[in-house]
Amino acid sequence: MSKTGERRRVLGIDYGTRRWGLAFGDELGVAVPLAALTDADERRRREGLAAVCRERRVTEFVVGLPLNMDGSAGFKAKEAEAFAEGLRREFGLPAHLVDERLTSHEAEAGMTRKELRATRARGVVDSRAAALILQDWLDQWVCRAEAGGEEALS
Question: Which one in 15, 93, 109, 141 has a CA-CA gap of 20 to 30 Å to 1?
Fold first, then answer.
């Protein structure tokens, strides 16, 4: 539960310029992949995101931050930061950034090249990556809550 007593309903996003992978989780601590937003028109992707937020009654966002392997922030990380800031302004909700290094690789693990080609355009890998990003954040949140630490992670 949040400080206001409202159920925590978190939308994880693997942000990309062409596709946005989505995952959903709540205080049960389990991230579940959702259908990715794959429309070529960013305006339509934003409308789809707003619809998911209304349907799921989202209370906060977790956005993957694609840091370089050395931990530095490159161009893509700056894009993700700007995207998260846009979410904060547009929806008036917290948007947390989580290191997403190697999540796409992990999301692709066990898939054949043929499966990757068939699923990449549909955003399946992106939504799996979003679930991994969100699960990492949820695991940290649950551990802190169980330890009696701060309720929300930044």
Answer: 15
Domain ranges of the chain: 9-146
pTM of this prediction? 0.81
DSSP structure string for 32-62: EEEEEE--SSHHHHHHHHHHHHHHHT--EEE
Give the number of other Cβ atoms within 10 Å of residue 105's Cβ: 10
pLDDT tens digits for range 87-111: 999 999 999 999 886 555 555 556 5
| Long-range contacts of 67-72, Cβ-Cβ distance < 8 Å, separation of 24 or more | 67/99, 67/100, 67/101, 69/101
For residue 12, the SS3 value is: strand
CB 150 within 8 A of CB 29: no
pLDDT confidence band for 143 (50 / 70 / 90): low
**Residue 25 burial (10 A CB sphere; 0-12, 13-18, 19+):** buried
In what side-by-side order are the strands of the sheet with 9-14?
32-37, 20-26, 9-14, 60-65, 95-99
